[in-house]
């Protein structure tokens, strides 16, 4: 962050690929996870194409991270466009609590404070803690400063030993907006697996869907995409229609919930920043 205050913008296209490639080589486990997810998503891809695709994911992640730091340090700004204004207006004007279903795409740390002010409603964003305590302390300090500057934005960490689900349910019942990421299983998060299409299994966190079921609030899928250099797009979809619960082991809403995420991920796979194994193919599966 100190370096960004003196580094001119035109060095980014040269430095980003170099540093990304270094991390790409070092992060062996994450590299294989991304390539494995892409091979499951696109079975016809060769090994070489999936590796190249995973590097594109890493590179896009690096670009969004630098954009976020540019905004935080006041050394750059980004342009935004909202796609799906009817759904956006519906979300902004509802009096009851709403749940935003999103995924690890774009940069939610950068987008949430901006759009919470446009909503005029408090957005409570849920995120996982950083793996290293030192980095977690830095991130918390950054986010608390964002909360000070953006009173409609609040962050909650999903850590073990906390009754976060009860707190989020209370906020939803009070008519507030809660944003959850429904595509990443990390740390002690309870997973579930769904067959989102014939032969394609997707692992998801169980908590967000359970929260939606327990509270009965309206769920709006919302995703953030990076269109170009310092340009982002927010796609807001109409409310998700979840089928009624039935007796049985599998909740019929699971494929619908997972499909809402997968449909956007498939269309924008280079924007999907999940570095753990999430997708797998089973016998008989084929690319649609």
Summarize the structure.
44% of the residues lie in helices and 20% in strands.
Write the layout of secondary structure elements.
Layout: H1 12-26, H2 28-41, H3 47-73, E1 79-83, H4 85-93, E2 98-102, H5 108-119, E3 123-127, H6 133-149, E4 153-157, H7 164-173, E5 177-181, E6 191-197, E7 200-205, H8 207-215, E8 218-228, E9 231-236, H9 253-267, E10 279-281
Parallel strand pairs: 1-9, 2-5, 2-8, 3-4, 3-5
Antiparallel strand pairs: 6-7, 7-10, 8-9
As a whole number of angstroms, the C-alpha radius of gyration is 19 Å
**Number of helical regions:** 9
N to C succession of SSEs: HHHEHEHEHEHEEEHEEHE
The count of DSSP E runs of length 2 or more, i.e. the number of strands, is 10
Our count of domains comes out at 1
**What portion of the residues fall into strands of 2 or more residues?**
15-25%
Shape: globular
| Portion of residues within helices | 40-55%
Which runs of at least 5 residues are low in confidence (pLDDT < 50)? none
Largest sheet: 7 strands, mixed
Mean pLDDT: 86
Structural class: alpha/beta
Instruction: List the strand order in the largest sheet.
Output: 1-9-8-2-5-3-4
Determine the N-to-C terminus distance.
44 Å
